Amino acid sequence: MKALVEHLVRGVVSHKDDVRVNVVEGEASLLLELSVNEADVAAVQGADGETLQALRTVVSSSSGRRKAVLELVEAGTGEA
Known about the structure:
- The chain is an alpha+beta fold.
- The chain has helices spanning 2-10, 41-45, 50-62; strands at residues 20-25, 29-35, 67-72.
- The chain has 3 helices and 3 strands; from the N terminus they run αββααβ.
- The chain starts with a helix and ends in an 8-residue tail after the last strand.
- The mean pLDDT is 92.
């Protein structure tokens, strides 16, 4: 799942080496915390959040039995 998110996000950002995905596993869920270069945040969010929502849809559809959640976090803070 981590590789999928990294691959998709690197396709829309300018600073490909700054894409980071932190995976937090729970019993029934999987949290993917996405961090990108500050200059690429707008590209990942897209107009009205459409790009980020599309990424979340792909992640959710690919997750199988465990619920997967994708969150965009600010670089260095670990907070949404």
